[in-house]
Amino acid sequence: MAPTHVLRCCQRGLAWIPVIFIALVVCWSYYAFVVELCVFTIRNIGEQVIYLIFFHLSFVMFVWSYWKTIFTKPANPSKEFCLPKAEKERYEREERPESQQEILWRVASNLPLYTRTGAGAIRYCDRCQVIKPDRCHHCSACDMCVLKMDHHCPWVNNCVGFSNYKFFILFLAYSLVYCLFIAATVLQYFIKFWTNELNDTGRPQAKFHVLFLFFVAAMFCISILSLFSYHLWLVGKNRSTIEAFRAPVFRTGSDKNGFSLGFRKNIAQVFGDQKKYWLLPVFTSQGDGLTFPTRLVNADAEQATVTLHPDANKCMQDVSVSPLSESHNRLLSSEQHANNTENHLADNPLKSAASETITVSMESES
Ligand SMILES: [Zn+2]
Ligand SMILES: [Zn+2]
């Protein structure tokens, strides 16, 4: 085996350490709560039953959403965003960046693109050799372009993006519920053990487990709460973590609220419009991950892809921009978009079957 291959295998193996750590903590918390607290410490049958029912409810929802966040494959750009063979060969032969950009502009004129690089160029990933759809970014950890990439999360050893963002939010929500429930129910026994009021359980190890259970649950509560509130704020603004760090650049300039459609529609973009599915880790996000409704759609929306060209762009600067709703976005309701969507769904069906620190992998686009 080549040394680079061995190195990559080692890296892939090591990347699972944070996930295994979380899994071990969760398994221990299950044992400590169910066996040491409910079975051996609590004497009241009614209290035992109520605690066990609510505990298992939050435990199942937490494990389900965590599982889906880890094992949902990140969605990648569809074939339409790859350069056709002839253009690709020409692109590789070209040495001048201007000529390469010209090839990209030509191919991009058939694609529904609103955003570009800070310098006004077409966003192209040399590594994946693909024109990046709006909100798509290359993740260096996964070594692929990920649709609506949010961040690469080491605690789930996966990229959080279009395909699993809802699962990630639910994972944060249910881990918070899980930790809050444990902390709230364990508190009274924590105090009793701490003040030596409860030492007749016959199991000296129960004290150790219950004391630690409270500390660990409280610690996770504080760290998850901050991350969860931040992501709820991002969902309300329809902004990814990457976009919060660096505003997307549209043909009218950079606009951090470019994808914001208003609070209710922003929520629906991630959770879908059917409230009964909001709390379940099943895929209900709107769209195909390749195109997104934008807040500001130029009056000449029909020619949106053409106006991306730098020359055409100069003429467009004087044209006023007016906010249009999703339904008025002519580009998105165009036949071409419908075809793209269908093709994408056929080619690339989404397998719809945390932490205090996150890493954000971003590529340079200037
Ligand atoms: Zn890429
Ligand atoms: Zn990644």
Automatic annotation (TrEMBL):
It is found in: Membrane. The keyword Cytoplasm does not apply. Residues 354-366 have a biased composition (Polar residues). Residues 123-245 form the Palmitoyltransferase DHHC domain. It catalyses: L-cysteinyl-[protein] + hexadecanoyl-CoA = S-hexadecanoyl-L-cysteinyl-[protein] + CoA. GO terms for cellular component: membrane. GO terms for molecular function: protein-cysteine S-palmitoyltransferase activity. Its EC number is 2.3.1.225. Pfam families: DHHC. The DHHC domain is required for palmitoyltransferase activity. Belongs to the DHHC palmitoyltransferase family. This is Palmitoyltransferase. It comes from Cyprinodon variegatus.
